[in-house]
Amino acid sequence: MSIVKTELKASDIMTADPVCVAPSATIRELARLFEEHEISGVPVTDAQGRVTGIVSKTDLIRRCSEGTADIPPAYLFEVLSEQGHDDEASEVIPEPLVCVEDFMTEDPLMVSPGHSAAAVARLMYDKRVHRVIVADEERFPLGIITSMDVLGALSR
């Protein structure tokens, strides 16, 4: 009796059609995207839809905690905390011009759909990252693999 073993590929464990964000998105828009989709990171795509970077909740929190030359960290956190309030009596806090492109990670790790899941796991471990973008040859995002996706594949 022969046992046929099939190796899992990136396409087998990825979340297809990932939510993406434009480099020009503001910190408030990014925070809203994370909350609405219950995710912690997204590919950043240019106007043609090609991957140019990746951004995570950790990046957002780090950026807000650093502030900018003109804006103290507390103000950025206040901007984010005011995003969901619909109280007309409350003052709208103007959002500073801090965009995703200001703090995204450029040239993120990307793999092809045919990349082995084991190789993806090794890459994530070696590079100490929590997500890898699955893209085609032209850098169009096909999916995203998170550390939770890798753990899920191991548990099957």
Question: Can you offer a commentary on this structure?
Answer:
The protein is of the alpha+beta class and 156 residues long. The chain has a single domain, classed as Roll (CBS-domain). It is built from 6 helices and 7 strands. The chain has helices at residues 10-13, 27-37, 57-66, 73-81, 117-127, 147-155; strands spanning 15-16, 41-45, 51-56, 105-106, 110-111, 131-135, 141-146. Helix 3 (57-66) crosses helix 4 (73-81). The longest helix is centred in the first third of the chain and has 11 residues, at 27-37. The two termini are 23 Å apart.
What layout of secondary structure does this protein have?
Blueprint: H1 10-13, E1 15-16, H2 27-37, E2 41-45, E3 51-56, H3 57-66, H4 73-81, E4 105-106, E5 110-111, H5 117-127, E6 131-135, E7 141-146, H6 147-155
Parallel strand pairs: 5-6
Antiparallel strand pairs: 1-7, 2-3, 3-4, 6-7
Most strands sheet: 4 strands, mixed
Shape: elongated
* CATH third-tier fold name: CBS-domain
Task: Write the H/E string, N to C.
Answer: HEHEEHHEEHEEH
State the CATH class. Alpha Beta
Total helices: the number is: 6
- List segments where confidence is low: pLDDT < 50 over at least 5 consecutive residues: 1-5
CATH level-four homologous superfamily name: CBS-domain
- C-alpha-based Rg, rounded: 18 Å
Tell me the number of structural domains.
1
Helix content: 25-40%
Q: How many beta-strand elements?
A: 7
Q: What percent strand?
A: 15-25%
For the record, the CATH architecture stands as Roll
In which order are the strands of the major sheet placed?
1-7-6-5
Derived from helix and strand composition plus strand pairing, the structural class reads alpha+beta
